[in-house]
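The instructor's notes for this session suggest beginning with a concrete chain rather than abstract definitions. Hand out the sequence below and ask the class to guess, before any prediction is shown, which regions might be ordered.
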Amino acid sequence: MPLNSDIQKEMHQALKEGDSDRVRTLRLLLSKLKNKSIETGGKLTESDSLKVLQTAAKQRREAIELYLKGDRDDLVNQEKAELRIIEEYLPSQLNEDEMRKIIAAVIEEIGTASIAEMGEVMGQVMKQIAGRGDGKIAQQLVREHLSS
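After discussion, reveal the predicted structure:
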């Protein structure tokens, strides 16, 4: 489990450096990975590990939105710091332009022009952007593309 061992090494380095925020976040990630491993009853694949980290990142993004609405800047800053650390272990994310190109290619391939077939388009798009793009943004872009 290379990702797990990378996080473990980084946590030990952060402990030596006295970076308590980084240590806390990495311990949380290791805990989530271990829980998932126990849940599945075996070693996690790289893909499974990435899914755990993506879920953790998504939780941070959602928390940031909620804390912004609640005017809790202290918690927003903490969540952003944790998100930055988690994102270090995730593959680089697609920007909107790259996602639009993938969406256009999928729509052209399927031959879809109707919003009624959005589910089929989303299925193909999510397979292509797996781990590299936010499903919520992809859905918004697909809806935008099919509506125009």
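Then share the key points. The mean pLDDT is 87. Helices lie at 2-17, 20-40, 46-69, 73-87, 96-110, 118-129, 135-147.
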